[in-house]
Design goal:
Elements: E1 27-36, H1 39-45, E2 60-70, E3 75-79, H2 86-93, E4 102-110, E5 113-114, H3 120-126, E6 131-134, H4 138-141, H5 148-159, H6 164-177, H7 196-208, E7 214-218, H8 226-243, E8 246-251, H9 254-260, E9 263-268, E10 271-277, H10 278-283, H11 288-295, E11 346-347, E12 356-357
Parallel strand pairs: 3-8, 3-9, 6-7, 7-8
Antiparallel strand pairs: 1-2, 1-4, 4-5, 9-10, 10-12, 11-12
Bound molecules: adenosine-5'-diphosphate, iron/sulfur cluster and magnesium ion.
Length: about 375
């Protein structure tokens, strides 16, 4: 039998019988904020010198008091237009926010342990071992001058004390699991000999190498054609289900959400706008931004001839946010209160428990989602204000 380097003690959530702990979310993020200081502050203090004084006008809050949870075996899709803070959210979970950005506040609890308070040496052990990341463009993450087998084996050896032979044998097994044809015979191949889809499979194999509890996949299929995209997402979904691994799937594609996610969190300009069961959100969004996203992309259940309607305007400059709801300048349902007060993320009226939205309320259009002219806005009671 092949010797494998999986000598870690079993963890809660590994594929096995349920335990009381399995009810607890694996990842709990509370009020997480990531800030980039204004250019003026950087010039004055040098890179990395975020003032944190509150006087840094023009600072960019790339992630603004974000809270979410992911359970073992669950796929959470993080959705939003480009620049909404999805990548910074993922990088902050690994404490890899690029300078001069920094995590300004919050908690990131992995199985109860706050990662933001761990010493850096302990955090290094978390990266790749307990949380792994799969990026959008595998070519930039793979070393072009090292063989595939060696790179996967190295990923194993960073976190496990095993011989090269054992690591290479395990690399072969992993490449087989991600359905690379003739995997064991191709350990000596170089990245340029693989197609984009095969390289992304290699990245997934590397992410799985140490059996992480959580995988962060940042637009893992954006660079791939549609058929390969579906294969890769099916693979990720199957492997995470089988192993009880939690998956944060970052995407701007709502079709991906409907097909692969259990839950969805919709992000806009650094803030969560809507969060809930993926099917429920897809069937009936409770936030104008989600409605706008849905109206702008084709859907499987589209009536023939539905026109795609892009959301008008652009996301705001994060250093100069409007005073009220940050979506107000683009919202088809904006009303007086929206321009003065900031809505907070609360249970959406009439929706299943846990379906949250950050909106004062609006009269939803009838007919297919997002179509139709804006109706008169309503302001149901109980929809709160942020500050
Ligand atoms: N190096 C940087 N310097 C300043 N601001 C940045 C930097 N990187 C990202 N940001 C800010 O963070 C925001 C969120 O970025 P990001 O998380 O990469 O968005 P997404 O992944 O949703 O496209 C950007 O809109 C930008 O304002
Ligand atoms: S709070 Fe107002 S502006 Fe913001 S999304 Fe809701 S209806 Fe639109
Ligand atoms: Mg991104």
């Amino acid at each position: 039998m092949t010797q494998t380097p999986d000598q870690k003690p079993p963890r809660a959530g590994a594929a096995r019988g349920p335990s009381p702990q399995d009810d607890e979310p694996l990842l709990v993020v509370r009020d997480l904020s990531v800030v980039f200081p204004s250019r003026r502050t950087v010039a004055r203090n040098g890179a990395g010198g975020g003032s944190g004084s509150g006087s840094d006008h023009g600072a960019v809050w790339a992630v603004d008091r974000l809270s979410l949870e992911i359970r073992r075996g669950e796929t959470l899709a993080l959705v939003g237009e480009s620049g909404s803070g999805k990548s910074m959210t993922a990088l902050s979970l690994l404490r890899l926010v690029p300078e001069p950005g920094r995590i300004a506040s919050g908690e990131v609890r992995l199985a109860g342990e706050d990662l933001l308070r761990l010493p850096e040496a302990a955090m290094r052990r978390v990266r790749g071992d307990r949380i792994a990341m799969v990026f959008q463009e595998p070519m930039t993450s793979l070393n072009p001058v090292l063989s595939i087998g060696r790179q996967v084996a190295e990923a194993i050896r960073v976190h496990r004390r095993v011989s090269w032979r054992a690591a290479l044998a395990r690399a072969g097994e992993l490449l087989e699991q991600v359905a690379i044809p003739d995997a064991r015979d191709r350990l000596d191949a170089y990245p340029h000999e693989f197609s984009g889809g095969m390289r992304q499979r290699v990245m997934i194999a590397m992410a799985l190498a140490c059996e992480p509890e959580l995988i962060l996949a940042d637009e893992p299929t954006t660079a791939l054609d549609v058929t390969v995209q579906a294969q890769i997402l099916e693979l990720l979904k199957r492997l995470t289900r089988e192993r009880g691994t939690a998956l944060m799937l970052i995407t701007h594609d709502l079709g991906v959400v409907a097909r692969y996610a259990d839950r969805v969190a919709v992000m806009y300009a650094g803030k969560l706008m809507e969060q809930g069961d993926a099917r429920a959100v897809y069937a009936r969004p409770r936030h104008p931004y989600t409605l706008g996203l849905m109206a702008s992309v084709p859907r499987l259940d589209d009536p023939p001839g539905r026109r795609l309607v892009p959301i008008p305007g652009q996301p705001p400059d994060l250093s100069e946010l409007p005073p009220g709801c940050r979506f107000a300048p683009r919202c088809a349902f904006v009303h007086g209160r929206c321009r003065e007060e900031r809505p907070t993320l609360l249970q959406a009226p009439g929706a299943a428990s846990g379906h949250l939205r950050s909106c004062f309320g609006f009269e939803e259009p009838s007919g297919p989602q997002g179509a139709g002219a804006p109706a008169r806005a309503g302001t149901p009671a109980g929809e709160g204000t942020e500050r």
